[in-house]
Design goal:
Protein name: TetR/AcrR family transcriptional regulator
Distance between the termini: 74 Å
Oligomer: single chain
Structural class: mainly alpha
Radius of gyration: 20 Å
Strand content: under 5%
Keywords: DNA-binding
Pfam family, one: TetR_C_41
Low-confidence stretches: none
Helix content: over 70%
Largest sheet: none
Order of helices and strands: HHHHHHHHH
Length: 198
């Protein structure tokens, strides 16, 4: 029987640990998740966790990266369904806010994420998001849809607003009501960016 390539075995081990950790972090949260239980669920040892991720925090960061990548794919699908670039941008922002109602995203990304990894502004994935958003805004300015403002500045402001609104929704006593309020306010804020007829 042919021996499996080492890269495949490494990828499988990492994927197993991330899947087990994601289930545990989503179910009981970072603080209560046991490394022994996570590695046992993956059929591996603590040594494998330390080798691939350094520690529990490193494994948590890998889970954050995975969920963020999935959120990005979902948001691009939302945007692609729109009839025009501006509607797609708005729909994508609204969909991001709505994700704050999902239990896994609430617990891992919006509650435990900042508590464990620090301010989300320091996460590398956030900078990528701002760059992508700035490119979209730059295109909308070029098309004459938006006022001629600095796309990076606008992207940073919008990103900050969506981040804080998502945190607010996730921690609100009535998340559904918070989502409605945030979505309505955010839509009005985006309207202010539109180029006014001369």
């Amino acid at each position: 029987m042919a021996r499996r390539p080492r890269a495949d075995m490494i990828a499988e081990t990492r994927a197993s640990l991330i899947a087990a950790a994601r289930a545990a972090f989503g179910r009981v949260g970072y603080a209560a998740a046991s490394m022994d239980e996570m590695t046992a669920a993956a059929g591996l040892t603590r040594g494998a966790l330390y080798h691939h991720f350094g520690d529990k925090k490193g494994l948590f960061a890998a889970v954050i990266d995975q969920i963020d990548a999935e959120m990005t794919v979902r948001l691009r699908v939302v945007s692609a369904k729109a009839g025009d670039r501006w509607t797609g941008f708005r729909d994508e922002c609204a969909a991001y806010l709505a994700m704050a109602l999902e239990p896994e995203i609430q617990r891992i990304m919006l509650r435990d994420g900042p508590a464990v990894l620090g301010d989300p502004w320091s996460w590398p994935i956030q900078n990528d998001c701002i760059r992508m958003m700035a490119r979209s805004l730059e295109a909308l300015v070029a098309e004459g849809v938006l006022m001629p403002l600095d796309p990076e500045a606008v992207a940073t402001l919008i990103f900050g607003a969506t981040q804080h609104a998502a945190q607010w929704i996730a921690h609100a006593p009535d998340p559904e009501a918070a989502l409605k309020g945030a979505t309505d306010a955010f839509s009005a804020m985006l309207d202010g960016l539109l180029r006014k007829p001369s």
